[in-house]
Amino acid sequence: MRIFQVDAFTDSAFAGNPAAVCLLDGPADPRWMQRLAAEMNLAETAFVEPRDGGYLLRWFTPVVEVALCGHATLASAHVLFETGLAATGEPVTFESASGPLAVRLDDGAIVLDFPATPASQDDPPPGLLDALGVDAPVWTGRAPEDSLVVVGTEDEVLGIRPDPARLLVAGIRGTIVTAPASRPDVDFVSRFFAPAVGIPEDPVTGSAHCTLAPYWCGRLGRTELTGYQASPRGGTVRVRAAADRILLAGHAVTVLAGELADAALPPG
Predict the structure, then answer these.
(1) Annotated catalytic, 201?
(2) To which CATH superfamily is domain 120-242 assigned?
(3) Which of 39, 44, 82, 95 is catalytic?
(4) For 1-50, what is each residue's pLDDT tens digit?
């Protein structure tokens, strides 16, 4: 059983967001998937199962299965294209807990077609701003799973030093903090904190950009933007708003390829 480690939303190794991608031959026990994800100890481990001319895709953090993950989807598509399991001129369709997800190559970049998850203006959960150390947000909102906190400058985003334990009290999956970019060739910057699912800070978060894109496209009056997630590893995500869908584009680099030893294979 082949397994890969891929840096997603980057064109160079040791940047972007690392994901493990495990290629399954058929159905596997979710309890085994969770144990392997804990062993890999990355933000996400993706499991790709061939099914009816496409693939079933599931994502696990070290502690829980999640309904949507952008960077591990990009990493999974990258592995399929790179190994020749998927033709580079044809789109790949993944069945997932978030519905069908179409992925294609476009001029060397991998483009993900994801559902938009816009945030509605709302007060932040009690204690959230204190946990972030944010005194005066420009705007706050709530997406289906995450809180969105908009601040005034990129420096404010970079300077946040959150208290993960206090973020857990907020009762949400994660918190997105964002601001206009001051760096060239980027429209907005962000960071994403999700200790509730075992990720104190995610390096680059595709699903968060399904919330960021509607906000920034509406605010800036454009349908195509470039975001930079300003984690210590950092990564670039190009976004395009298309009705109730968001197109996310980025690159990926394989840094490790191997096979699971017999002791690690699923039961049966």
Answers:
(1) no
(2) Diaminopimelate Epimerase; Chain A, domain 1 (3.10.310.10)
(3) 44
(4) 999 999 999 999 999 999 999 999 999 999 999 999 999 999 999 999 99
